Amino acid sequence: MPASMMNLYENACLRCGRTVYQVDRIGPLKDFTFFHTGCFKCSVCSSKLTLKTYCNNQDDQDDKEVYCSSHVPKIGPGHLDGEAVGIRSALNVPKSAHFVNDQIRPGGRPSIDGDSIVLKSPYAQKGGNGSGNGSENGHNDYKYGRFDHTALHIAHALNATRIQRIYDKPINQYLDVQEQKMMEMKHRMEEDDLYKKFAKQRAAEEAKINEHLKEEWETELEKLTSQFERDLAMKKRSREESKVLTVRHQKDRDELEKHMTIKREAKKENLTRKMLEHERAATAALVEKHSKEMMRLIQEKRSEYLEDDEEIEHYPASPPPPQPPPQTKLDIYTDPEEFAQVDQLAIQVAQEDQKTFTDLVRMLVGHCSSDVEKARTIFRWITVKNLNSITFDDSAHGDTPMGLLRGIKYGTESYHVLFKRLCSYAGLHCVVIKGYSKSAGYQPGVKFEDNRFRNSWNAVYVAGAWRFVQCNWGARHLVNAKEVPKPGGKSKSDSLRQTSRGLGRRNSLRYEYDDHYFLTDPKEFIYEFFPLQPEWQLLKAPISLHEFEELPFVRSLFFRYGLYFPDEHTKAVMYTDSTGAATIRIGMPSHMQSSLIFHYNLKLYDSDKDQYDSVSLKRFVMQSVVGSLVAFRVHAPCSGALLLDIFANAVTPREYLTGEPMKFKSVCKFKIVCEDLQTVMVPLPDCASGEWGPAKATRLFGLEPITHQDALVFAGRDLELQFHMTRPLTDFMATLHKNGSEEKRLSKYVSHRVADDIVTFTLSFPEEGQYGLDIYTREVASSDTTGPTEKHLLTHCCKYLINSSKRN
User: Fold this and answer.
1) Residue 454 CA, distance from chain mean position
2) Span 64-70, mean pLDDT?
3) Which of 217, 479, 649, 744 could disulfide-link to 483, CB 3.0 to 4.6 Å?
4) Is 622 in contact with 685 (CB distance < 8 Å)?
5) CB atoms < 10 A from the CB of 554, how many?
6) Calpha distance 779→759 (Å, rounded)
7) What is the distance between the alpha carbons of residues 95 and 88, in angstroms, rounded to a whole number?
8) Residue 198: enclosing H or E segment and its boundaries?
9) Please, what is the end-to-end C-alpha distance for the chain in angstroms?
């Protein structure tokens, strides 16, 4: 590609100096300058700008910075900057309804069409290729679908800005903080009354229980005492007999007291559970009322302020009906780093305590320029705050920082109700959706017949549509620094390191959140969540509860890695064929094929047993990778149900070659059912776990197979395997395995030799049968003498399944 064309796609941000890529680019602007979306702010006040609101210094040609209208340096009378004319002309370029630039809207061809960046201006002088021929508008001969380079970049930036709606000015400009606090104080008084009512009801119910149990205790104790007195009075007892009766009576009394205590605690627990359900419903209803009142106040003030401002698109006054969103999450943002600044703000605010929701929300959204940013900063505050682990002081009142979250303390307010409450203070429509979820304890094949898997989540109206948010599942959790996401994953860290008090040093604990659960696309959300109201699936064609149960059981990591099921018949429960086999296939995106590693676990469905006849069930699964597909072929050793759990991790070849242990996380699970086994299944040879075939050797070691590209090899009594090394490897080792034979006895039947960059493995089989071959190697240590030598452990490279027979 010519250097001039490369410069169109690789430029430095004027503000931060780092490379600006196509998907995050605003520009070219003055003197062919570019900005990251997050850096496109006023140079003076740092307020967020758009292509409609930014200004340049028209009085100084060397000043390439951007400003808001309030802080732009004023120009003298009669001065006109030619750059403004150029940009305005680019914005007025005719647009074709028949062409979509794939660099702006993902989903088309990944290649760049050279015609789409022809540097021909539609307003060039007469006689140019893109000019008119003396017509009135000058565009009669203009080829629609072609853009000059300026129009291309500005159209991309305008598209990103259009989706993240700029609905209004900061809330401080149209709603006085004291007026909002007055409404909050009114709401807090109503909330105080509700909590007092809760406390009164609990006390009354507990008093009833205690009174009832007291009467029962006295009745039972009277019976016990009467029996004891009758036993003593039946006939004259000796001193020893009386002593025995007394001891037995005391023992019976102690048992009765223990029984009554257990009974009292059980009744109190049952009462608490029932009361809590009632209190949660009452709290949610009150928050719903308060949210409507707060939204009404904000909407009234916003409408008054923006009444004459035609450039601002008004946020809907009332919640729109649920409809499928017209754009995907990737149309709104492609990388969480785009929210780096608002995320960092949420992290900082979460480390402090606020006395009012008004103060909290204004600190969070005061400088947000779009509804998406507002929802984002509230989502990140909740996920960072780690509400489940907060320690509350019993004396915390509603007007204290911790009293602000007393609903969390008492269990009457969930993450979802809190998110809705905070959204109302920010002027965002938000609903709490109830339904079923494939949450903790769920296994594929389970029916949703009771309340075990009932759950709730949110939908917030941003970017012109309702979009899902699951704060609880997105909330942070502690991970070890070695477990941070690898390249290709989108899970982000809160970048908060904990300081060890006693040692005064930083440890390796990090907080991590799950970005998948912010503005999740409906087509992905439906795999884990099923609303009771079908319209809140936000799908063009809603599915039934039975269809939801049949969907494969996947986790967020499945979507973060871009995985998919290429076979339409893939379901949560897979049935074996007549040979007792079932195959699960998973597709990988092209950019992840070189870094993804899969593993699996197989066990009995109704127990934790992972063996059958003292043989690991893993040996009844053959995992292989061909191109973009990874396949798991399960051979059931017996009739019944099995549970297949598939794990994945994204690593670089260098990370894998170190031989250090890796952390794998579940991406999906399946129930494998064998109703009638007609063929006796033999376990695979006891090789190292993981995929069969040479694909891993090529991906991670650069070791390319010359003679055998498939995992399954048919051979006679002798076999020769050859590989080509594309980078230096050393210390090759191969081990042979066969059911019923010792590995040590088979070691003399396999050898290898290295000649230049060709590695040859020679095998001779002592008898016919099925063999497994494991190959290990490591990278040659770096010869760099400037630093310590990096020593790699011997690492598993690949394995083959070999059928040896005289007939082959």
Assistant:
1) 21
2) 87
3) 479
4) no
5) 23
6) 14
7) 14
8) helix 177-233
9) 51
**Phi and psi at residue 306, to the nearest 5°:** -100, 10
Between β-strands 573-575 and 665-674, what pairing exists: parallel, antiparallel or unpaired? parallel
Those residues whose C-beta lies under 8 Å from the C-beta of residue 481, and which sit 6 or more positions away, are: 508, 509, 510
Residue written as tokens 């008492």?
A: 410
Question: Can you tell me the distance from the alpha carbon of 664 to that of 687, in angstroms, rounded to the nearest whole number?
Answer: 19
pLDDT tens-digit map of 102-127? 333 333 333 333 333 232 333 333 33
> How many CA atoms does the CB half-sphere of 383 hold within 13 Å?
33
What span, in angstroms and rounded, lies between the C-alpha atoms of 756 and 769?
33
* Model pTM score: 0.71
Reading the block at residue 488, the tokens are 């290709």
Residue with tokens 């004023």: 74
Measured torsion, CA atoms of residues 765, 768, 772, 778, in degrees rounded to the nearest 10 = 10
Q: In 3-state terms, the chain is what percent helix, strand and coil (to 5)?
A: 35, 20, 40
Helix H, strand E, coil C: the string for 469-488 is ECHHHHCCEEEEHHHCCCCC
Report which of 673, 612, 611, 668 is spatially closest to residue 645, judged by C-alpha positions: 668
- Which helix (DSSP H) or strand (DSSP E) does residue 601 occupy? strand 596-604
Contact indicator for 776, 687 with CB cutoff of 8 Å = no
Tokens (6 digits) for 124: 């060039």
Contact 26, 51 (CB under 8 A): yes
Answer positive or negative: Cα dihedral of 401, 406, 407, 408: positive
Burial class (CB within 10 angstroms; exposed 0-12, middle 13-18, buried 19+) of 337? middle
- List the beta bridge partners of residue 35: 26
Contact present, 346 and 364 (Cβ < 8 Å): yes
pLDDT in tens, 563-615: 999 998 999 999 999 889 999 999 999 989 888 999 999 999 998 899 998 99
Which amino acid belongs to residue 575?
Y
Closest CA to 779 of 742, 725, 736: 725
Burial class (CB in 10 A: 0-12, 13-18, 19+), 784: exposed
Tokens for 511, please give them: 């907080």
CA distance 610 to 602: 6
Instruction: Print the SS3 string covering 275-327.
Output: HHHHHHHHHHHHHHHHHHHHHHHHHHHHHHHHCCCCCCCCCCCCCCCCCCCCC
Instruction: List the beta bridge partners of residue 581.
Output: 635
Mean pLDDT, rounded, for 193-207: 88
Residue owning tokens 């949210």:
291
Q: How many CB atoms lie within 10 A of CB 375?
A: 27
Residue 784 has what pLDDT?
Answer: 52
Region for 586 from its dihedrals, namely left if φ exceeds 0, alpha if ψ lies in -120 to 50, beta otherwise: beta
Give the CA distances from residue 232 to residues 226, 247, 255, in Å, rounded to whole numbers and listed in that order: 10, 13, 20
Q: Are 355 and 400 in contact (CB under 8 A)?
A: yes
Q: Which of 438, 418, 436 is nearest to 426 (CA)?
A: 418
Question: Residue 414: CA atoms inside 13 Å, Cβ hemisphere, count?
Answer: 21
